[in-house]
C-alpha cells in the first residue's frame, strides 16, 4: 500500500537515524537553518534552551538552542534578500525546483519517517502516510506555480486594465507539534510557489523534519534564504510575529495563541492565516452503514493519539442504532495495538508529552465526575518493553452517558477521548452540533445523500465529511469557521492567501479631464 524509498543522492545530508539511541545525526546537528545552512543560535544563553524529549521513551534526546532576536533578524534578512531573486524567477522555474525538492524528500523518505516518529511518537505507518501526502503538497504547488496569473479587463475606447497577482514578501510560519512535517510543507509549498520566501518556526516539541525539508529545498537548488527554520518557544514566535519585515503570518496551533498572533499582526497591518482548534461533531444517522461509521469514528478520534485538530470528538449517534454501533466500535477499538510506534502493526503510539498525557487523563477524570461512563480505555498503558516505560501511552477512550454540557463535550481535549451522544431528530442534532464556538470540521454518515447535503448546508464548519472522516486531499481547501480560524490551507484557495492583487489601468486616449 505505502512505498518506502531510501536512496540518498550524493550531497544530501545523510541522516542515518537509529532507534532509541542519542546518536542521531539529524537530531544532533544544529537545528536552526538560516540562509542555506544549519547554524547554532548566535545570541543564546542557557536560559534560552529547551529540551527535546522523545515521546516513545520519555528520554531527553538533546537540548536545543532557541533563536533569539539576532537569529530571528538574520533569518528574516536572509529571506528578504532571497525574495528579490526568488520572486523574479518564472513560476515554471520555481515549480521545477520545488518538484526536485519533493523528489529528494521521496528518495530520503525513510529518514523523514523515522525522524517524524522520534519527534511525535505516532505510529510509523501514520508518519509514512503524512510524509508521502505532504510531499504531494509540494508537487501540487510546484504545478500551481506557473499558473498563477492576473486578469485583463477591456475598457471603453481601447483602454484596458489588468491585474497582477504578486507575492507578499517574507512570510512567517509557526506550527504545532501533531503534524510537524505537514505544517512545514502546507505552509512553505504555497508560499514559495507564489514567489514568497519564508521563515518557519516548528513547535519546540517537534523541531526536526522542518529542518530536513529546508535541506531538501537547498539541495534541489532553491536559493539559500528562501526557506529558513528557526527553533524556539513562544518568545521566538513572538519575535518572528512582530518583525517589521514579515508581511504575513500563517499559524497553526491553539486559539489563545492564534488570538495573540492576530493581535500582533494587527499592529503591523499584516495578513494572517489561522488554523486553530476544534470540537467537531460526527453525526451517525439510523440508516448509516454502521461498519463504515465505526471506522469513521475511529479515524475521527484515535489517529495520532487523538491529537488532531479536525477530530470529530462529539459522536452523535441516532438512538435507533446506538447499541449496534457501540458493539462494532468497541470490537474495533479493542483490536488497536498500543505501544512501540516503530512497529508496523501499532495503532496507538505515545502521547506527545507527560504534561499533555496528564491533561488528557485529567479530562477523563472530570468526565467521570460529571457522570460519564467509560465504555473502554482511558488509562495509562505501560508497554512490556522496558525501553518504552518512560513513554506516555494512553488507551483510546470511549465515553458513553455523555451530555452536551459536560466539560469533555465542550472543550477541546486534543487526545484519544471520544464522547458518544445519542440523538433523536435531524433538527435536534444540527442544533446541538452547532452549539460550540469552534467550526473546524464535521461529519455525516447516512445512505440518504439528500439528507446528507441538507445537513452539510446547515453545519457551521470549514470541512465536512460525508461517509468518511479526516482525509485531506491537497486540492481541497482546509480551514476553520468561527473560532477555528481564518483563511484556508491547501488548494488554489491558498494562492489568494499568499498573494496580493495589483490593478493596473492603461489609458489608450487623451486624458479626459476639465483641467
Ligand atoms: N486547525 C489546525 O490545522 C490545527 C490546529 N491545532 C491546534 O493546536 C493546538 C495544539 O498545538 P500546540 O502546539 O499545543 O499549540 P500552541 O498554540 O501552544 O503552540 C503552537 C505554536 O505556537 C508557538 N507559540 C506559542 N505561543 C506563542 C506566541 N505567543 N507567539 C508566537 N508563537 C507562539 C509554539 O511555540 C508552537 O510553535 C490545539 O488547540 C489544536 O487544535 C493543531 C494542529 C492543526
Ligand atoms: N492541519 C490539518 C490537519 C490535521 C491537523 O494538523 O491536526
UniProtKB/TrEMBL annotation:
Q: Does the keyword Amino-acid biosynthesis apply?
A: no
- Annotated keywords: Oxidoreductase
So which domain of life are we looking at? Eukaryota
User: Where are the bilayer-spanning segments?
Assistant: none
Q: Does the keyword Transferase apply?
A: no
Active-site residues from the entry: 275
A Gene Ontology molecular function term for this protein is: oxidoreductase activity, acting on the aldehyde or oxo group of donors, NAD or NADP as acceptor
Aldehyde dehydrogenase domain: from which residue to which, for each copy? Answer: 46-504
Tell me which Pfam families the record gives.
Aldedh
Q: Which family does it belong to?
A: Belongs to the aldehyde dehydrogenase family.
Name of the protein in question = Aldehyde dehydrogenase family 9 member A1-A
Amino acid at each position: 500500500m505505502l512505498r518506502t524509498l531510501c536512496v540518498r543522492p550524493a550531497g544530501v545530508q545523510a541522516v542515518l537515524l537509529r532507534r532509541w539511541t542519542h546518536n542521531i545525526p539529524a537530531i544532533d546537528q544544529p537545528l536552526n537553518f538560516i540562509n542555506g545552512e544549519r547554524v547554532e543560535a548566535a545570541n543564546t544563553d542557557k536560559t534560552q534552551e529547551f529540551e527535546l524529549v522523545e515521546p516513545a521513551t520519555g528520554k531527553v534526546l538533546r537540548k536545543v538552542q532557541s533563536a533569539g532576536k539576532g537569529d530571528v533578524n538574520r533569518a528574516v534578512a536572509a529571506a528578504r534578500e532571497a525574495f528579490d531573486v526568488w520572486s523574479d524567477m518564472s513560476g515554471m522555474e520555481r515549480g521545477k525546483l520545488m518538484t526536485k525538492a519533493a523528489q529528494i524528500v521521496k528518495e530520503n523518505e525513510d529518514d523523514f519517517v523515522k525522524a517524524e516518529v522520534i519527534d511525535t511518537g505516532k505510529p510509523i505507518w501514520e508518519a509514512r502516510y503524512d510524509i508521502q501526502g505532504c510531499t504531494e503538497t509540494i508537487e501540487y504547488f510546484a504545478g500551481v506555480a506557473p499558473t498563477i496569473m492576473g486578469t485583463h479587463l477591456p475598457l471603453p475606447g481601447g483602454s484596458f486594465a489588468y491585474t497582477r497577482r504578486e507575492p507578499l514578501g517574507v512570510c512567517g510560519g509557526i506550527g504545532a507539534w501533531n503534524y510537524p512535517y505537514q505544517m512545514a510543507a502546507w505552509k512553505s509549498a504555497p508560499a514559495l510557489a507564489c514567489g514568497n520566501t519564508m521563515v518557519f518556526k516548528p513547535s519546540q516539541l517537534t523541531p526536526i523534519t522542518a529542518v530536513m525539508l529546508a535541506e531538501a529545498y537547498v539541495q534541489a537548488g532553491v536559493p539559500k534564504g528562501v526557506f529558513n527554520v528557526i527553533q524556539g518557544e513562544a518568545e521566538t514566535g513572538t519575535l518572528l510575529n512582530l518583525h517589521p519585515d514579515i508581511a504575513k503570518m500563517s499559524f497553526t496551533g491553539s486559539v489563545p495563541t492564534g488570538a495573540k498572533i492576530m493581535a500582533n499582526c494587527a499592529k503591523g497591518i499584516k495578513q494572517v492565516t489561522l488554523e486553530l482548534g476544534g470540537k467537531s461533531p460526527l453525526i451517525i444517522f439510523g440508516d448509516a452503514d454502521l461498519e463504515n461509521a465505526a471506522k469513521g469514528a475511529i479515524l475521527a478520534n484515535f489517529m495520532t493519539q487523538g491529537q488532531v485538530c479536525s477530530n470529530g470528538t462529539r459522536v452523535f449517534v441516532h438512538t435507533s442504532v446506538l447499541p449496534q454501533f457501540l458493539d462494532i466500535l468497541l470490537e474495533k477499538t479493542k483490536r488497536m495495538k498500543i505501544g512501540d510506534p516503530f512497529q508496523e502493526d501499532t495503532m496507538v503510539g505515545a502521547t506527545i508529552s507527560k504534561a499533555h498525557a496528564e491533561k488528557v487523563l485529567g479530562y477523563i477524570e472530570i468526565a467521570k465526575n460529571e457522570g460519564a461512563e467509560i465504555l473502554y480505555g482511558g488509562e495509562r498503558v505501560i508497554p512490556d518493553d522496558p525501553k518504552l516505560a518512560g513513554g506516555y501511552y494512553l488507551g483510546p477512550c470511549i465515553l458513553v452517558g455523555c451530555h452536551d454540557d459536560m466539560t469533555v463535550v465542550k472543550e477541546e481535549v486534543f487526545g484519544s477521548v471520544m464522547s458518544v451522544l445519542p440523538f433523536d431528530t435531524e433538527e435536534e442534532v444540527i442544533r446541538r452540533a452547532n452549539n460550540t464556538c469552534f467550526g473546524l470540521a464535521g461529519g455525516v454518515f447516512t445512505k440518504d445523500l439528500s439528507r446528507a447535503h441538507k445537513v452539510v448546508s446547515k453545519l457551521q464548519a470549514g470541512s465536512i465529511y460525508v461517509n468518511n472522516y479526516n482525509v485531506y486531499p491537497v486540492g481541497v481547501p482546509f480551514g476553520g469557521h468561527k473560532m477555528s480560524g481564518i483563511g484556508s490551507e491547501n488548494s488554489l484557495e491558498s494562492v489568494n492567501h499568499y498573494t496580493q492583487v495589483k490593478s493596473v489601468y492603461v489609458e489608450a486616449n487623451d486624458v479626459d479631464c476639465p483641467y
